[in-house]
Amino acid sequence: MPVDVDAANRALAGLRPFPVAITTIDGGVANGLMSLSAGSASIIPEAPRATISLTKYNKTHDMVLNSGIFVMHMLSAEDGQIEKSLEILRILGGSSGRDGDKMSKLRTKNGVTGAPVLLDAHSYVEARVTASLDVQESTIFVGDVVGAEVFSDAGRLRIGEAWSKLPQEWIEQYDANHVPQLENARTRRFGTTV
Description:
Elements: H1 5-12, E1 20-26, E2 29-35, E3 38-40, E4 49-55, H2 59-67, E5 69-74, H3 82-93, E6 108-110, E7 116-118, E8 123-134, E9 138-150, H4 159-165, H5 168-190
């Protein structure tokens, strides 16, 4: 029986409400991207873990795979901070690290692993990778949290709110940039684009 793809997508919709900024460093080079595939990976409160899923198309994927470290940042929805959150989203989500340095445009400090921590984020966890799972077009990374900080008590930015505040021309460019990533994922999963 074939899968009802529309039903599957409706059932899965909304399960990734928070955009997260992922940063890392490898060989002295820092980079980052935006992701909707991140979360907690431990039920043990005294031993937190984080999980991220990165597509293999992205430079940040290869850097996390090589370095074994990542920082996962939540963004703030607070009125006074939302412009900074949208700036992070536009910079890290608007272009590839292969096209040039994105990190120098953002306020950062070095985390305990040396990876960049975004100072205008809502909060972050820094992790060392303990396990990974190759899922054809992506890799799921699980890391033990080695550093964390909360910069704001405000609510965290949700993707729907962020998208409603981004300029239309940026969204159009994002969509155009997403096409080769999607084609790469289809090729990795199915062996050809469909």
